[in-house]
Amino acid sequence: MSAPLLSVENVSAFYGSIQALKGVSIEVADKEIVTLIGANGAGKSTLMMTIFGQPRAREGRIVYEGRDITQLPTHEIARLRIAQSPEGRRIFPRMTVRENLQMGAEIDGGQHFEADLAKVCELFPILAKRIDQRGGTLSGGEQQMLAIGRALMSRPRLLLLDEPSLGLAPLVVRQIFEVIAELNRQGMTVFLVEQNAFHALKLAHRGYVMVSGSVTMSGTGRELLARPEVRAAYLEGGR
Amino acid sequence: MSAPASTLTIPGAVRDALKVGLITLGLSIPILAVRTDQNLSNQIVLLPRWGLVASAVGIAIAVRLAYLLLAAVRQARGGALIGSLGVRLPAQAGTMFARAAVVFLFLYPVIALSLAGTGGAVKWIDNFGIQILIFIMLGWGLNIVVGLAGLLDLGYVAFYAVGAYTTALLGKTFGLSFWLCLPLAGILAAFWGIILGFPVLRLRGDYLAIVTLAFGEIIRLVLINWVPVTNGYAGITGIPRPSFFGVPFNASDQGFSAVFGLPFSPLYRTVFLFYLILLLALLTNWVTLRLRRLPVGRAWEALREDEIACRALGINTTSTKLTAFAIGAGFGGFAGSFFAARQGFISPESFTFMESAVILAIVVLGGMGSQVGVAIAAVLMIGGTEILRELDWMKEIFGSGFDPTQYRMLLFGLAMVLIMVWRPRGLVSTREPSIFLSERRAVSGAHVREGHG
Ligand SMILES: Nc1ncnc2c1ncn2[C@@H]1O[C@H](COP(=O)(O)OP(=O)(O)O)[C@@H](O)[C@H]1O
Ligand SMILES: [Mg+2]
Q: Is the CB of residue B300 less than 8 Å from the CB of residue B143?
């Protein structure tokens, strides 16, 4: 295997004195979908934010495209064409859909705005209908689509998604996962954080399982789906 | 007061109002009915004030009746009367209103002159026109920081003070003209904005408010105590007044009147100052509207909504905040410079926390980010308090010792409470998108929760 696009090497991160990540190592290769599953509070979102330098990794390093980005300021990491749709979507509620998407395009100065807007609207036709509506008035699913669309506006090479299925109806979840698969077919690398383990593992090429700040298992999506521990903990309603 | 009963009859309403009147009477007797005074031999004498009590009771009854009537009308309409009272401007109406207002402002001195004559016009142009425009400009300046970038700044008056003292000191010490001092004051205030911005970069909301409040007080205390430079409480007098492109406004042979062959009158300077502050305010507005369409303006608004999301989108929140502080402060500095040149005299008393509070109230009441709303709020708040000086007829009702201006703060507070009850998002709560697909459409804020929707 060639050098991975993103590698997280032995990273530990803290909130004050509380250790949220305990020496986590993860690799994401180019054009791959990698998922990270785990229970609530396992540290999945923390890992995603640590890649963006918030909180910063106290130990270990994060390498992207062969470059150590561990100490880079958050906004500069975003300029390396890593985009994220954060947990809870975090769209700008008082700004219109179009303005939200414009914020995503800010990184490359908005030169490709119209073309990228058309692309996003093709992926999520509902956004075209809501284009002049306030972000805060969209439904949960639409907001999630907007958050993903906003991330796509920066033409990322690596897309980080934190629980895009959170609180959404199954039909909407399926639609969003189809878009993720489509993006990947077009060459996008995706790192997907999910609690919805079944869908995520079916979609992903590879997966990691996180428990209390440590990665406990890894393998292809299919392998993990077949593991009895995974089934017991994440698929059959158990803990 | 409790909400009125569901079925309202006229006798019922009258009975209700009379009850309120009775309560008012009961409250008035110990509070209002007698005034203690001293006579020549230092004895306390009691002066009855039954007229005042009667007025208070009358007002209470009238207000209660009006309230019941309003409630009845609202019920008849099946709901939100109060909502329909508010300003819900469609986008076009907003622009048209703004254009009409600007035209009116340009004609205002002429209108004042023709209606009030040369003698009376100075008061209307100066006390109302210039005073309100200063606060509109300050409101628009603070709007960049609070309304757009969402950084709660309770010490904005500090930048106003920096601008004023810059103009005063440069003008007096180095003899620089107002036209040189004006840009320098803006630049220096912007510089102080950045100095304040650095330590508060990581703060938000209440914490930011406290630090900016302290900053405003520090500036004021420095002005008071650095006597060799600022002359302390006594203030600075004899600040050079602005000239008409080099022609001073005085009675000399080189003065404005003499040069233009007009009889001397203080009116020319007042009218000139009016147009000057009008242009400065319009400049503030123009720059703000421009910036809103640029990436930095969008970044301010996004920052107000969600700082973490901003950073994740590659926005440098540090420089975004600092530009908001600097530009907002710069306009405060311009306004301060104008203030110093208009008054010819400044002292720390003009830059108390009260001024900051009034400017912030204008921004909040105006609707946090709406330019038109801020202007309307400034007219209501500042115009309202100036109107109080004109209410001498109230002495007829409340007795000769009654001074309406003393009730300024009380009415101020009352107005704030009422507006916040009726229009919790400010007078103009619609936010104009900075970009449109096809047609302009106002996007109402009424149904959107603040924060994460
Ligand atoms: N801002 C924060 N400050 C302090 N502790 C936090 C913060 N965010 C998360 N944590 C803690 O870190 C741990 C991991 O949280 P998180 O990464 O959000 O988990 P997950 O996304 O897997 O549900 C949890 O114990 C949580 O309480
Ligand atoms: Mg999470």
A: no
